[in-house]
Write a structure and sequence with these properties.
Elements lengths: L12 H14 L5 H13 L3 H6 L7 H15 L4 H5 L1 E4 L2 E4 L12 H11 L6 E5 L5 H9 L4 E6 L2 H13 L7 E4 L12 E6 L14 H4 L4 H4 L7 H11 L2 E10 L5 H10 L3 E7 L5 E7 L1
Parallel strand pairs: 3-4, 3-6, 4-5, 6-7
Antiparallel strand pairs: 1-2, 7-9, 8-9
Helix pairs in contact: 1-2, 2-4, 6-7
């Protein structure tokens, strides 16, 4: 991209996407063509449909230079979402920054299960623990504006990001956002119908073996679940019990092969009616339990 000769090369949208896709593939990126398209839409300030309609449009030197810098960052394995500052989740555009986890498609399972539990409830009071970017509560609010949503996080950076996403949500100011280390700042008592969380659940010993996009660019504290990945969950389950209404629901996103131990912990804390929800690969991704 950018080679010159006696005759100046004209780079069209088609040409530059083809070149970039191959370059990013060689650099180890999982979805090189999609990455190339998302970076070019960001550089040009257009959507992907416009790219396809303008395949034969030449790029100016200024446009190529801007795009080149974005591609360099992606080639170093920086996630596209952090380069562009946004990520699609539940058909919403979620703003992200280096202080929050990038929303992942499998977490949409958690959104759907929360919404399913809310269908039979009126005046439903819901709390998200560790809201990060706010992607999950924003998704819930976009479908159910009548839910009384609360969200907390220990990270001030995450709270700032979540507040921005709440303000640009289709349901503005969709959640009451506050700082808390899990439920430490919440008084005990039957307050919530539903408490849900996507807590840190990666065993600390394997974080260094994760893809560079994760281990180098996403916040360690939002990944690290301690020796077996369950340190946060062990604290969260008994705290949740103290703040749920009778027959209230606790929903947890969990990691691979953690369901048996998490189910045991739930039963030790008097939760029952435990149900597992798999992701598209068949792995259990969410557990729901009733107090």
């Amino acid at each position: 991209m950018g080679a010159t000769s006696n005759k100046k090369i004209i780079w069209t949208v088609r040409d530059i996407l083809k070149w970039t896709s191959e370059y990013l593939r060689r650099k180890g990126c999982d979805s090189p063509r999609l990455d190339a398209e998302l970076l070019l839409t960001h550089a040009l300030g257009v959507d992907r449909l416009r790219l396809f309609l303008d395949f034969d449009r030449p790029l100016s030197d200024k446009e190529r230079e801007k795009y080149r810098e974005l591609v360099k960052r992606r080639a170093s394995r920086e996630p596209v979402a952090l380069i562009t500052g946004k990520k699609e989740f539940w058909s919403l555009e979620i703003m992200v920054n280096p202080g929050v986890l990038i929303p992942r498609p499998e977490t949409e399972i958690l959104v759907q299960v929360v919404l399913d539990q809310c269908k039979t409830l009126t005046n439903c009071s819901v709390l998200e623990i560790g809201c990060g970017s706010g992607a999950v509560f924003c998704a819930i609010a976009s479908d159910r504006s009548d839910i009384d949503l609360y969200a907390c996080d220990i990270s001030l950076c995450a709270l700032s990001c979540a507040s921005i996403n709440a303000s640009i949500n289709p349901n503005p100011n969709c959640a009451h956002i506050f700082a808390s280390d899990l439920l430490e700042s919440v008084r005990s008592g039957p307050i919530f119908d539903i408490i849900f969380s996507n807590p840190p659940y990666v065993p600390s010993s394997i974080i260094d073996s994760l893809e560079p996009e994760i281990r180098q660019f996403e916040p360690y504290c939002a990944l690290n679940g301690g020796d077996d990945g369950l340190a946060t969950i062990r604290r969260l389950i008994p705290q949740s019990r103290n703040c749920l209404k009778p027959n209230g629901n606790l929903l947890l996103e969990i990691g691979d092969e953690q369901s048996d131990e998490v189910e045991r912990l739930l039963k030790l804390n008097d939760f029952s009616e435990i149900r597992a929800y798999p992701d598209l690969s068949g792995k259990i991704r969410v557990l729901k339990a009733v107090l």
